[in-house]
């Protein structure tokens, strides 16, 4: 390899690193302009070393594999946990991509390196706005569940009957039965408050209303009410 070829590869890696790093720096990320430029340039230097030693494509491939491993440890350093949430995964992925661009430049593949740089920039700019639009859109109702609490106040002697009705209703409807509790209510005559907690899809709320209506007609029931919590996504 002549010196001019080496310089061109290094300059290409440097330029691609700067292009990717500028976007991260403007957003004030943990790994910014200097870090990403160094990663791209360092990856280029390592791969160029494989070319200079004359080990052929096998040597370059081995060095590239070690570069990927090393950048993986570096990326782990920019990932942080903040109040239960993970921060910095996108920056770590950007570092990984910058290393790949540097490897391409070191191998002399300028076209793919430029394409990779443009893809990374598009992912961090265009897709950023798109992801925000998606996050602002309400989640599809098919992916939602809600927790409901049903409260029935009845006579003390009807407690077992009401608990049985609630239990049978839970298992006969498309509900996820969570809990069933009872507690005494002060006053005369003696009353008992029976509380059932279920999880279900919001589209089945009408069935819950029907169940509550049926139980309200039972002898000894003085009141019945239900309420739903905030909608939450269904776990994967």
UniProtKB/TrEMBL annotation:
Residues 148-226 form the MgtC-like C-terminal domain. It holds the Pfam family MgtC. Residues 10-132 form the MgtC/SapB/SrpB/YhiD N-terminal domain. GO terms for cellular component: plasma membrane. The chain crosses the membrane at residues 6-23, 35-53, 59-79, 110-127. Keywords: Cell inner membrane, Cell membrane, Membrane, Transmembrane, Transmembrane helix. It is a multi-pass membrane protein. The keyword Methyltransferase does not apply. It is found in: Cell inner membrane; Cell membrane. It comes from the Bacteria. The keyword Coiled coil does not apply. Virulence factor required for growth in low Mg(2+) medium and for intramacrophage survival. May be involved in regulating membrane potential by activating Na(+)/K(+)-ATPase. Belongs to the MgtC/SapB family. PANTHER family: PROTEIN MGTC. This is Protein MgtC.
């Amino acid at each position: 390899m002549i010196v001019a070829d080496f310089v061109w590869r290094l300059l290409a890696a440097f330029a691609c690193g700067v292009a990717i790093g500028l976007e991260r720096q403007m957003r004030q990320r943990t790994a910014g302009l200097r870090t990403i430029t160094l990663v791209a340039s360092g990856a280029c230097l390592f791969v160029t070393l494989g070319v200079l030693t004359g080990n052929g494509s096998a040597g370059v491939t081995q060095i590239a594999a070690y570069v990927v491993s090393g950048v993986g440890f570096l990326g782990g350093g920019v990932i942080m946990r903040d109040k239960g949430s993970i921060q910095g995964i996108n920056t770590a992925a950007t570092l990984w991509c910058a290393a790949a661009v540097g490897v391409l430049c070191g191998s002399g593949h300028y076209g793919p390196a430029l394409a990779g740089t443009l893809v990374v920039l598009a992912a961090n700019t265009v897709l950023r706005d798109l992801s925000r639009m998606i996050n602002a859109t309400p989640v599809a109702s098919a992916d939602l569940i809600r927790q409901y609490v049903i409260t029935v106040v009845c006579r003390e002697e009807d407690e077992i009957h009401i608990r049985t009705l609630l239990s049978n209703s839970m298992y006969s409807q498309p509900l996820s039965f969570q809990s069933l509790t009872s507690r005494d209510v002060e006053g005369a005559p003696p009353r008992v408050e029976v509380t059932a907690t279920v999880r279900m899809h919001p589209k089945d709320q009408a069935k819950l209303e029907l169940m509550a209506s049926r139980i309200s007609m039972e002898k000894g029931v003085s009141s019945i009410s239900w309420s739903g919590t905030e909608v939450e996504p269904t776990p994967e």
